Amino acid sequence: MRDVTLYELEQLGAGAAEAEEAFQMDEDSFRVFYERTARPVWAYLARMTGEARLADDLLQEAYYRFLRARVAHESEAHRRNYLFRIATNLVRDLRRRPRVDDVPIDNGRRAIDCADPQSEDAAMGAARRVDLRRAMARLKPRERELLWLAYAQGSSHQEIAQALGLKTASVKLLLFRARRHLAALLREGER
Amino acid sequence: MTRRLIMDCGREADVLEAVAFGRWPDHAAELVAHVAACAACADLVVVAGALQNDREAACREAPVPAAEMVWWRATIRARADAARTASRPITVAQGVAGACAVGLTCGLASIAWRSVPWADRFGELATRLATRRVDLASTLAMEHALPLVLVLAACLVLAPLALYITLADD
Q1: Which one of A82, A143, A165, B50 is most buried, by most CB atoms within 10 A?
Q2: Which pTM value belongs to this model?
């Protein structure tokens, strides 16, 4: 392996300093924030896109955009919600782009299932998650986003409205309809 | 037993909390009775339970890279973006200079053309065109085919090279 020269180290150091100036937080604050949010954001991206590989790429992109955004955050919750908003926009952009390898989410196990098959509970859990994924795939993208943010992420109506670009007043009704839809699909799957 | 379906059930928050904190159904006997009569809360139990289990599993299995790696990639990309932004005015200036050069050449050519008695030249051109109209193109092509092909090939080879040298970062 090639040794790194002193000049290259200096360049990297200078680059890191420049980048920190361009970002909205320093490395230590970022690390703390990332540890708290990376897994939920990845889960959201994976479930909204239906593909783990895409979620990996979008995760990096989401944090980059977050770091570059010059937004003053009132609180940790506001910051986290802003990150989910970026993630939502990324998923929507992805949907608008035509894709060559667009395979429908029909087999449920395509991307993310890795439950331990040795235990019966785990197998049942995995089967339920497959059912859920099949049912989620039959929902409209906005319904999926609403339901995930509300019931998986535990976001308030106001946070959901901000993340999805909706009016707070309309979240309740949309969520109610989406919930009924998903519950019906899940019960249908059980029968 | 038929369940009432109302959008605004006052027990929704309690039901959601019981599901979220793992108290459902064993430690929420009163809520279980309510859910048996409320269709909205029954839907909530089904949906919230499934989504929360899925989220837990996804978070457990999430192959997220280390924070240092994400930070490092972001700094590299920020530098590349900064370099691209810095080079943009140079590219614009080069384009403007090119356009000026083309404009200047055209202007000079038009002045030179006007300085020659235009009527004579136009008459001469019209006569030539009238006599050799049909085979003008083919004759030109036959006479200048090889040099033309060579010039075009040179352009095809040199243009990407020139573009690469102009746009290369280092």
Answers
A1: B50
A2: 0.67
* ipTM higher than the 0.90 cut: no
Q: Name the β-bridge partners of B61.
A: none
Question: SS3 for B38?
Answer: strand
**Min Cα separation A12/chain B (Å):** 9
Structural domain boundaries enclosing B168:
118-170
Distance CA A179, CA B32 (A): 19
A152 touches chain B (CB under 8 A): yes
| Cβ contact, residue pair B74, A64, below 8 Å | yes
pLDDT tens, residue by residue, B12-71? 889 999 998 888 888 888 889 999 989 999 999 999 999 999 999 999 889 999 999 999
In whole angstroms, what is the distance from residue B104 CA to residue A138 CA? 63
Among A40, A112, A154, select the one facing B61 at the smallest CB separation: A112
Which residue spans of chain A are classified as CATH 1.10.1740?
8-97
Helix (H, G, I), strand (E, B) or coil at B4: strand
Query: Which of A22, A153, A179 is nearest residue B44 as measured by Cβ atoms?
Result: A179
Cα–Cα distance, B130 to B115 (Å, whole number):
25
How many distinct structural domains can be found in chain B?
2
Domain A8-97: give its CATH code.
Answer: 1.10.1740
Residue A104 pLDDT:
46
Q: Is residue B6 part of a domain?
A: no
Q: What class has domain A138-191? A: mainly alpha
Instruction: Tell me whether A47 touches chain B (CB under 8 Å).
Output: yes
Amino acid in the structure at residue B126: A
